[in-house]
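Q: Given only this backbone (128 positions), what sequence would you predict?
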């Protein structure tokens, strides 16, 4: 799906959700979540290109494969957390959305610690 189709789908879904919010507000939330899932699956179809490109970059720079895997995990955590938080905010639950965002940030921080340690070891080796 190209950006024009996704944008049109998003705008039409939003307009439909607004129409439903007038009568039964939960239908508007369901409509927004449904459209968001359709867009999510269209993004997942493009994920192969990103993964292949990351592998090529890793080959050029000769990175440790676990670093690329960690970066892809961070990307996935970021997108899933943002997706869930926006749906919670749209439903009116900002507190839950904030907790999801905080959990995602801490998870990414924990995932990045081995990379940070490797970077510090490399810097220490250069300085020694």
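A: Predicted residues:
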């Amino acid at each position: 799906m190209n950006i024009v189709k996704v944008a049109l789908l998003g705008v039409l879904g939003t307009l439909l959700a607004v129409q439903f919010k007038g009568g039964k507000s939960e239908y508007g939330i369901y409509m927004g979540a449904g459209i968001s899932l359709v867009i999510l699956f269209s993004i997942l179809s493009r994920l192969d290109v990103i993964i292949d490109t990351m592998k090529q970059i890793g080959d050029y720079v000769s990175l440790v494969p676990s670093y690329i895997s960690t970066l892809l995990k961070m990307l996935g955590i970021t997108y899933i957390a943002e997706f869930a938080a926006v749906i919670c905010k749209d439903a009116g639950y900002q507190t839950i959305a904030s907790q999801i965002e905080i959990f995602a940030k801490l998870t990414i921080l924990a995932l990045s610690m081995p990379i940070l340690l490797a970077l510090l070891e490399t810097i220490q080796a250069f300085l020694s």
